[in-house]
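Protocol step 4 of 6: structure prediction from sequence.
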Amino acid sequence: TSMKGLSKSRYTAFCQCPKNLWLKVFKPEEATIDAGVEARFEQGNMVGDLAMGLFGEYKEAHAEKPDGSLDLAKMVEQTRQWMQEGVETICEASFTYDREHVVENVTLPPDKPWFTKWTESHYCAVDILRKNGDGWDIYEVKSTSFPEFNGNEAKLEKYAPDIAYQKWVLKKCGVKVTGTYLVCLNSDYVRQGDLDLQQLFVVIDMKELVENEYTKVSTR
């Protein structure tokens, strides 16, 4: 049995370019990040931190291993515990779904049985997971501006694969997903006095676009 992890960023990379995903997995040393990309990463982190307070109080799933890397298993456990405790807003809500693949009707040498099956681990972290009745809403935060999207026509469909993947993983983990939303910066907002998060961000219902993309997730 072998295992390759598939996160939402890798899934989205595949949707944009299969070769891009191959490089990320098998030749990460060839991936290059220029100064402009790093600046956008930093901007995205700042926007994400602000967006966490959009609905008031929240808990953020975060845990690190001794070497400083993220402890995803502990973050998944934190998320599960907080959901059970009734925490209404969880940021970086983490989920893992393991799917086993079995190849049937294939004759292989008896000393190599492991080639007939493998486990595919799917991980995602939801930017904001919000309790809604007996289910949960997914909010994906982007640092782009809306409605103009930095002067260009808004093409919301490009964000659908990311959100659809999150919905798929959550449903496989037994979570009832009641809504899927995109959170962007409001380009019309002019700050006067204290920063108003309700005015700073625009929340867009992605239900139809995500539903159109959702059926493709398990086939990719």
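Step 5 (inspection) to follow. Helices lie at 8-16, 18-26, 35-51, 72-85, 160-172, 197-200, 207-217.
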